[in-house]
Amino acid sequence: MKVKTKVCIVGTVGIPACYGGFESLVENLTLHKSENISYTVFCSSKSYSKKLVSHNNSKLHYIPLKANGAQSILYDILSLIKCIFLKPDVVLILGVSGCIFLPIFNLFSNAKIVTNIDGLEWKRDKWSQLVKRFLKFSEKVAVKNSDVVVTDNKAIGRYVEQEYAKSNVTIAYGGDHAIRLGSFDTSSDTKNYALGLCRIEPENNVEMILEAFSQLKYNLKFVGNWHSSTFGKELKEKYGNMSNIELIDPIYDLDDLYRLRKGASLYLHGHSAGGTNPSLVEMMHFNIPIFAFDCSFNRYSTDNSAHYFNGVEHLRNLVQYTPKEEMILNAERMVFIAKEYYVWSKIAKKYEFTY
User: What sections of the protein cross the membrane (predicted)?
Assistant: First the structure.
């Protein structure tokens, strides 16, 4: 009987996935794992009222802290300390906040360290200068002390090579889980609206998209956390009463979200930071044209094949004047790219190859 490679996963809220991109990654790594891989996943006890012992045939260990926010550093460090005693062959770290502990961890463990450094968090405008400096330092320590550095986008991979002279492996996210199996009634969907879906933050160019559509007759449905910030509330106040714009609160029911995505005529992706965005690669599986903000992250994710905008007037003209034939060809191209690169069974194999 072949000995299994023992892998501990550190840095997420945990599984079953109920939070974000990294959690969906772990959900699918464990779901699609090979027979010779044994996963142990660290989970936040604060996020699970029901604490399962295992999920997807993987062991779960709970840490009594929140995985995000101010407690995330200690959460990751405690997870790494537990790894010392579990003696895994590999530790997969998702994010860099706890990586300041790696120099000490490596003194007590021979485990191979594979770290996904995430999307250059230190560059994001939402953080204070102090937090930005800490995240940049953590990133540096992570890259220096990891055996394998994983980036989710070629633009970030190039940055790691230039900034740290360190080779890395680019592995994106899967998106095929967004396609729901079974019979769904989409008869009421007339493909007559554009769709936006994101956290309502300035770096996601939400205002640019809303302003462009305020000058169009084209219908827009935009899903986001409008009530979580002053910025979101101001946008809802300004654009929420326009006849062609519908601002929708977050949708947590996967079937409802599927119907909304399936019924869209085009998808608007305004993200300007963070590498490969899960919502983008998910939408690429839906056979609809993609209009993305023009930045290196989005161009790499869509293989330079989407429609790109860089301002209100530019987006307005793209939506208004792009021929239907181009829209159809773009939708077909997005699906082709998605099936080639953004399928979870393929992503899981790529991660296992780094172990």
Answer: 90-108
Characterise 287 by phi-psi region: left (phi > 0), alpha (psi -120 to 50), beta (else).
left
- 246-249 LR contacts (CB < 8 Å, sep 24+): 246/193, 246/219, 246/220, 246/221, 246/222, 247/222, 248/221, 248/222, 248/223, 248/224, 249/223, 249/224, 249/225
Return the number of other C-beta atoms located less than 10 Å from residue 295's C-beta: 17
Q: Is 140 exposed, middle or buried (0-12, 13-18, 19+ CB in 10 A)?
A: middle
In the chain, which segments carry CATH 3.40.50.2000?
5-171, 180-341
Of 125, 70, 126, whose CA–CA distance to 98 is shortest? 70
Mean pLDDT computed over 79-86: 98
Residue 298: how many other CB atoms lie within 10 Å? 24
What would the pLDDT profile of 132-188 be if each residue is shown by its tens digit?
Answer: 888 889 999 999 999 999 999 998 999 999 999 999 999 999 999 999 876 555 555
Yes or no: domain 5-171 corresponds to CATH 3.40.50.2300: no
For residues 128 and 213, give the distance between their C-alpha atoms in angstroms, rounded to a whole number.
32
* Number of other residues whose CB lies within 10 A of the CB of residue 353: 10
- Angstrom CA distances, 47 to 20, 62, 72, stand at 13, 10, 13
The answer as to CATH 3.40.50.300 being correct for domain 180-341 is no
Structure tokens at 178: 């967004």
